[in-house]
């Protein structure tokens, strides 16, 4: 057994804890039988240790991890995490490796961190923050200031589970361990890149959060920009937190809206009533809890440029939408066509396309190859590999870093600020109504007239 990490879950009674955090922990403990974890749950309910233990067991069972639940010591402490005395009582006596996981809404997390003082936190305590991290660049900076007044940056974990996705991590090996890819990985050979994460899921009862966020902030500002950073980064000297995060951070610093023209480089749309997988969906504006005056988009598309010598001139299209039928979830790298083809060859000369499916992992390379019939006639052929699901789900991968005290897969403070800086011109243009709010039928591929991706 390794030394136990104490995971203090602030918001232990909440949805995030039972739906994401505990199942991820269960999966991790099954994969790593030697890992030792102690849970201290904190929330406002009057629960007993046994009641929290039941929540843990149920969540673990959803990952076939019932046996692992027996290895976890569970304690519950009734706590108002915005009150100094309660926080003192909760943190008194904590020793060893401690992670404080904020599984609470951002406003409660902010109230808690401004109530905490360094003397309440044992040396080495990690603070684990969920998205959304702030609401704009200035608020993210302020949050960073408060957090790093409590612990050093290397102990702050800003969770973005897309960094733990096996597809994102597979980009590293694919790029840096294959001489046929990395030397071509620049504007010299690559024409454009699409990072698409459409979902058939609609609102799923999350209006309280989603109606204020929208697709741009919910997915592009956070997850898809992180994927872009991994795809576009220079080779880091190592995959430790310093080198890896310096490399991804440098990409984000160089990223801006294409042509500095947010109105021309973004689209937004909202779904109307339709049907997904045989189930009727109401219009977004008729979903319970939605404020129709908010103009929240459920599909966003943006084009960015990474302004450095490697990438200048290559459009990176990022798109994410809800209630999309047969949704695409992939990274698509479009290579340039060759400059010249010898006379005598006919058929397809389009540039190669490399696709990374975002779970289950699959890589596919479309090339121009000889047609079986005629050796001088080229047609498209696809070489593909199924890469499976990855050993750990994305959340479990990220959590494993937290429990090890390794922030490599956590978003660094300045990167979180950059992500807000990058999308700000688009949010402002949308606020000024410079971009129309298009509509698409729930269950369709998106608004008519938008480019097709498949
Ligand atoms: O498909 P995954 O891994 O659940 O990630 C997508 C989800 O990521 C979350 O962060 C978003 O808030 C959700 O709206 C989205 O559905």
Give a verbal description of the structure.
- The chain is of the alpha/beta class.
- It folds into 2 domains: 5-130, NAD(P)-binding Rossmann-like Domain (Rossmann fold, 3-Layer(aba) Sandwich), CATH 3.40.50.720; 163-390 and 411-441, Dihydrodipicolinate Reductase, domain 2, CATH 3.30.360.10.
- Helices cover 32% and strands 25% of the residues.
- It contains 11 helices and 19 strands.
- The chain has helices spanning 15-31, 49-61, 66-69, 84-91, 106-115, 137-150, 166-176, 207-232, 241-254, 394-404, 413-431; strands spanning 5-10, 37-43, 73-78, 97-102, 126-129, 156-158, 190-198, 255-257, 266-272, 274-276, 279-281, 299-306, 316-321, 329-335, 346-347, 353-357, 361-370, 377-388, 437-441.
- Strands 7, 8, 9, 12, 13, 14, 15, 16, 17, 18 and 19 form an 11-stranded mixed β-sheet that branches. It has a 6-stranded parallel β-sheet with strand order 3-2-1-4-5-6, with helices on one face. A two-stranded antiparallel sheet has the order 10-11.
- α8 (207-232) packs across α9, α8 (207-232) crosses α11 and α9 packs parallel to α11 (413-431).
- The protein starts with a strand and ends in a 13-residue tail after the last strand.
- It binds 6-O-phosphono-beta-D-glucopyranose.
